[in-house]
Design a protein that fits this description.
Elements: E1 15-16, E2 18-23, E3 29-34, E4 37-42, E5 45-51, H1 56-64, E6 66-71, H2 77-83, H3 93-96, E7 101-102, E8 111-112, E9 117-129, E10 132-144, E11 149-150, E12 153-154, H4 156-159, E13 162-166, E14 169-172
Antiparallel strand pairs: 1-13, 2-3, 2-6, 4-5, 5-10, 6-9, 7-8, 9-10, 11-12, 13-14
The chain binds flavin mononucleotide (FMN).
């Protein structure tokens, strides 16, 4: 089936989904789900998110220079959805969705307690690309709950990450298979 080129990303699916938490210059928290997110470099550690220009998330990152990627699991899917709604600037989606703020280790932006893991970032640079702004962040702290790390591997069967397909539909990543060695 041929797709409209503008909807190409729907077959780059499912996409890892995070709640991005930020603060504005008055310290008011904000959180929004993003799935246009990808690692860019491991040394230095850089991550990319793509924000539409009107996002409060983008305004806050520009004002205060940091943000946190909070991993989204099946457990908090409905609360994550509440965070996707357009609340006025300064209203905390973390409060509105009854999630819990957790103090971050290296950045001003809060983390979200209920998430399986947290990636704290400082703004490295931004660049316009089409109808989104590419925001590259430097990872200054990364952590996941002990129960989701088995030996040295992040255990998706336990963490059950919610991966975006489209609209309100998500795949839950819990089945693990291994490629045969050639
Ligand atoms: C699963 C999901 C993924 C999303 N991914 C993105 C994204 O990558 N970039 C973006 O700009 N908006 C994305 N959105 C839309 C924003 O989350 C939504 O517009 C939100 O209200 C923005 O909040 P803010 O203005 O507080 O930043 C996504 C929404 C959902 C539900």
């Amino acid at each position: 089936m041929e797709l409209s080129p503008s909807g190409f990303y729907e077959i780059l699916s499912p996409r890892c989904t995070v709640l991005i938490s930020t603060v504005d210059k008055e310290g008011r928290a904000n959180a929004a789900p993003f799935s246009f997110v990808t690692p860019v470099s491991s040394n230095p550690p850089l991550v990319l998110l793509c924000a539409a220009p009107a996002r409060h998330t983008l305004a806050n990152v520009r004002e205060t220079g940091d943000f946190v990627l909070n991993l989204v699991s099946e457990d908090i899917l409905d609360k994550m959805w509440v965070c996707s709604k357009a609340f006025p600037r300064g209203v905390s989606e973390i409060d509105k969705s009854r999630l819990t703020e957790r103090k971050s280790k290296q950045v001003k932006s809060p983390s979200i307690e209920e998430c399986p893991g947290w990636i704290e970032c400082t703004l490295e640079f931004e660049k316009e690309a089409g109808d989104h702004i590419l925001v590259v962040g430097r990872v200054v702290h990364a952590e996941c709950k002990d129960e989701f790390m088995v030996k040295t591997e992040f255990n998706v069967s336990r963490a059950k990450p919610a991966m975006h397909i489209r609209g309100k539909r998500f795949a839950i990543g819990e089945r693990v298979v291994q490629a045969k060695a050639a």
